[in-house]
């Protein structure tokens, strides 16, 4: 069974074609600058052929059409007929309270995704564009929606409710939703596989640390708390996002700087976080290079980020009544030995200790637990596309 995984952004369309018999990637790529000048497709086949096709791409339907044409190409393609694609899995960012699992897409599902646009105005519209393009160009192939929010729908009400007037929840569904659910579910599942454990009677904290970052408490296989909230702005300091701050800071800055709502939203989402603190940029590789030169603001950015990750780990162990496994993933989690070391410093009282030599290894799956430590600490590269493909296959085989 071959699954096509589609992940649409406002001006991009990423894809992977995965053979689910072996879980090998047959082809992957992304179209960028859709609707803009200089649009192109970067394509790579499973046997290593790489091409860049420069072509004016006006919309997501044209992007998908170019991808299909390339997949079928006699020289660089990987399939001979669209019938070789069994199903299409779509990443959809927001499913609100409507979806606690992946679903086969029909008109009712599309209507609900549209209802959630207010809560994810930057993500759900392009997700819908990808769905509509696939339905138009491949009408006989089933489409599956895999939601970033679904994994967190197991949170108890005391975890997802905000202390605002209850009618705000009733009228507008303002509550914690959480994101990165596809990634958190994947690395949890992989951790259980690596450790040879079931999801029963186990307490895990997964740390998705990248340009966007979140921490998740997983008890007995279910998300019971996560750091992102109503939007991905809450929680950890991120690449350019502020993370959690005193709400009064927002109105104070708006008044002092005479900022509009849009100005303030831009400041918190695109000018804050590691970028705002360091003055270097939002990429931790750049920040760590400056840190090595003794740059104080780069040091501050790393310290603040690590401190907050540590805080979430400890608090999540508290609400679960302990911790058995700690997992690092995503760009920073997989590649920054500096951040991992700073995060776990001082957590020995909880049983979390790492082997400093093993921790130097970056970018690969590894158990970095110090010998004798009670809590297993793993680094697991995330694979959201494979998780989407697995979810898609599961639904196709059971419906």
The gist of it:
The chain is an alpha/beta fold. The protein folds into 2 domains: about 1-145, 2-Layer Sandwich (Nucleotidyltransferase, domain 5); about 195-385, Nucleotidyltransferase, domain 5, CATH 3.30.420.40.
Jot down its keywords.
Nucleotidyltransferase, domain 5; 14 strands; alpha/beta; 8-stranded mixed beta sheet; 6-stranded mixed beta sheet; 2 domains; 399 residues
> Helix count?
15
What do we call the CATH homologous superfamily of the largest domain?
ATPase, nucleotide binding domain
N/C terminus separation? 15 Å
- Rounded to an integer in angstroms, the radius of gyration calculated over CA atoms is 21 Å
List the helices and strands and how they pair.
Elements: E1 2-8, E2 12-19, E3 24-32, E4 40-45, E5 50-54, H1 60-71, E6 85-92, E7 103-104, H2 107-115, H3 124-137, E8 143-147, H4 157-160, H5 166-172, H6 181-195, E9 203-209, E10 213-219, E11 222-226, H7 247-257, H8 261-270, H9 273-278, H10 284-292, H11 296-320, E12 325-329, H12 330-335, H13 337-344, H14 356-359, E13 366-367, E14 376-379, H15 384-398
Parallel strand pairs: 1-6, 6-8, 9-12, 12-14
Antiparallel strand pairs: 1-2, 2-3, 3-4, 4-5, 7-8, 9-10, 10-11, 13-14
Helix pairs in contact: 1-3, 6-15, 10-11, 11-13
């Amino acid at each position: 069974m071959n699954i096509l995984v589609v992940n649409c952004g406002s001006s991009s369309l990423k894809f992977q074609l995965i053979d689910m018999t072996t879980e090998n990637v047959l082809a992957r790529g992304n179209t960028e600058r859709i609707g803009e000048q200089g649009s192109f497709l970067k394509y790579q086949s499973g046997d290593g052929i790489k091409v860049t096709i420069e072509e004016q791409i006006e919309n997501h339907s044209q992007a998908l059409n170019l991808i299909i044409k390339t997949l079928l190409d006699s020289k660089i393609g990987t399939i001979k007929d669209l019938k070789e694609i069994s199903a299409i899995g779509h990443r959809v960012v927001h499913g609100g309270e409507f979806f606690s699992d992946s679903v086969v897409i029909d008109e009712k599902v599309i209507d609900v995704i549209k209802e959630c646009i207010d809560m994810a105005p930057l993500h759900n519209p392009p997700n819908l564009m990808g769905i509509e393009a696939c339905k138009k160009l491949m009408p006989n192939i089933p489409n599956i929606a895999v939601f970033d929010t679904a994994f967190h729908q197991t949170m108890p009400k005391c975890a997802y409710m905000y202390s605002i007037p209850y009618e705000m929840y009733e009228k507008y569904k303002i509550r914690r939703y959480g994101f990165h659910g596809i990634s958190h579910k994947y690395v949890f599942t992989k951790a259980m596989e690596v450790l040879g454990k079931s999801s029963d009677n186990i307490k895990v904290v997964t740390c998705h640390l990248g340009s966007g970052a979140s921490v998740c408490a997983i008890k007995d296989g279910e998300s019971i708390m996560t750091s992102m909230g109503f939007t991905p702005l809450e929680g950890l300091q991120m690449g350019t996002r502020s993370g959690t701050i005193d709400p009064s800071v927002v109105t104070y800055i708006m008044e002092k700087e005479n900022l509009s709502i849009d100005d303030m939203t831009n400041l918190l989402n695109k000018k804050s976080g590691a970028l705002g603190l360091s003055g270097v940029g939002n990429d931790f590789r750049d920040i760590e290079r400056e840190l090595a030169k003794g740059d104080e603001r780069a040091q501050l950015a790393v310290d603040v980020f690590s401190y907050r990750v540590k805080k979430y780990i400890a608090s999540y162990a508290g609400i679960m009544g302990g911790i058995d496994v700690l997992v690092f993933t995503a760009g920073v989690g997989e590649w920054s030995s500096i951040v991992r070391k700073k995060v776990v410093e001082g957590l020995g009282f909880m049983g979390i200790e790492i082997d400093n030599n093993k921790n130097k290894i970056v970018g690969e799956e590894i158990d970095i637990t110090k010998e004798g430590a009670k809590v297993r600490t793993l680094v697991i590269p995330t694979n959201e596309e494979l998780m989407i493909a697995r979810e898609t296959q599961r639904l196709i085989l059971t419906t």
